């Protein structure tokens, strides 16, 4: 199986990658800390591992430029926007999802050149 990688990333890719990395890291940190703060941690355990998965994908294969990682990273903004539709108290998830979409769109040209 051959993996297509990006030979050199420009500043737009680096900025988008950092935005994605920070949003996944901060959401993972928030969800893992809520495990110890709230009484019912089961939902936050799942969300924490979901964000940890996204963080690891962004950190290693996404940075290498593997195309499957770009597609898999769409789970982060979609996974953050879906709970916000169900519960208006966590509407800030929409903001984090929008930041994730921005990061993905900034890196799209490097993954799919013309």
What is the strand and helix layout of this fold?
Elements: H1 11-37, H2 42-64, H3 67-72, H4 75-86, H5 92-111
Notes on the protein architecture:
The chain has about 110 residues and is mainly alpha-helical. It has helices spanning about 10-35, 40-65, 65-70, 75-85, 90-110. It has one domain (about 10-110). It starts with 10 loop residues before the first helix and ends with a helix.
Supply database-style keywords.
114 residues, 5 helices, mainly alpha
How much is the average pLDDT? Answer: 89
Q: Please state the CA-atom Rg, rounded to the nearest Å.
A: 15 Å
First-residue to last-residue Cα separation: 23 Å
Secondary-structure element order, N to C: HHHHH
Low-confidence stretches: none
State the total count of DSSP E strands.
0
- State the major sheet: none
Helix content: over 70%
Count helical runs.
5
Q: State the shape.
A: elongated
Q: Please indicate the count of domains.
A: 1
Short description:
The chain is mainly α and 114 residues long. It has helices at 11-37, 42-64, 67-72, 75-86, 92-111.
């Amino acid at each position: 199986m051959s993996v297509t990688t990006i030979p050199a990333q420009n500043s737009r890719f680096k900025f988008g990658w950092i935005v994605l990395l920070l949003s996944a890291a901060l959401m993972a940190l928030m969800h893992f800390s809520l495990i110890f703060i709230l009484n019912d941690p089961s939902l936050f355990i799942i969300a924490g591992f979901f964000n940890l998965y996204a963080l690891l994908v962004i950190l290693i294969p996404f940075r290498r430029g593997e195309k499957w990682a770009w597609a898999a990273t769409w789970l982060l903004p979609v996974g953050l926007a879906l709970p916000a539709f169900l519960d208006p108290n966590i509407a800030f998830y929409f903001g984090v999802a929008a930041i994730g979409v921005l990061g993905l769109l900034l890196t799209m040209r490097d993954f799919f050149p013309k």
